Amino acid sequence: MGDDGVGLAAPQVGVNVRLMVFNPMGRDKPGNESILVNPEIVEQLGGKELGEEGCLSFPRIYGDVERSRQINVKALDATGQPVKLTLTDPWVARIFQHEFDHLQGVLFHDRMKPSVLETVRPELVALEEAFLAEHPAAKVQRLAPAKGAKGFGAPKK
């Protein structure tokens, strides 16, 4: 997977298809990648847990996100054959859900609790500012910080 990632969804690299690839071992065990096309979560099992996540699309930004511990999934494999998976390892289930969210247009910080989001807001704003500096015509829609937010990212008075 390069860049110490364990998963990647096609939209992250500008390809508008419902495809993801993941390898829970990352670069430690290349060749163990799972490729899933048109994946769906069929059932969420085993309760939920909070865990730290990062994303290749948002370098060096980490925060806790709540995810299902176990899930049942259906998809097509790389050859177009239907597959059904029961992801009982919470780490693997988390990776799948993170990449699946990309296919739904949801980003990991969209799933953070407001208090966690506020801890990463400065880094997100800095990425937006860097993007705007390179693409002056682009428009960025920013969400207002949580009430009571102070410091960088708080509304100016």
TrEMBL record:
A cellular component term from Gene Ontology for this protein is:
chloroplast
Write down the species: Chlamydomonas reinhardtii
PANTHER family, per database record: PEPTIDE DEFORMYLASE
Predominant location: plastid
Q: Which family does it belong to?
A: Belongs to the polypeptide deformylase family.
- Keywords per UniProt: Chloroplast, Hydrolase, Metal-binding, Plastid, Protein biosynthesis, Transit peptide
Q: Which domain of life is it from?
A: Eukaryota
* The name this protein goes by in its record: Peptide deformylase
User: Which lineage ranks, top first, belong to the organism behind this chain?
Assistant: Eukaryota, Viridiplantae, Chlorophyta, core chlorophytes, Chlorophyceae
Keyword Ubl conjugation attached:
no
The EC designation for this entry is 3.5.1.88
For this protein, the record's InterPro entries field holds:
Peptide_deformylase, Peptide_deformylase_sf
Q: Name one Pfam family in it.
A: Pep_deformylase
* Catalytic activity field: N-terminal N-formyl-L-methionyl-[peptide] + H2O = N-terminal L-methionyl-[peptide] + formate
Tell me the GO molecular function terms. Answer: metal ion binding; peptide deformylase activity
Q: Enumerate the Gene Ontology biological process terms.
A: translation
**Root EC class:** hydrolase
Localization recorded for this chain is:
Plastid, Chloroplast
The job of this chain, per UniProt, is described as: Removes the formyl group from the N-terminal Met of newly synthesized proteins.
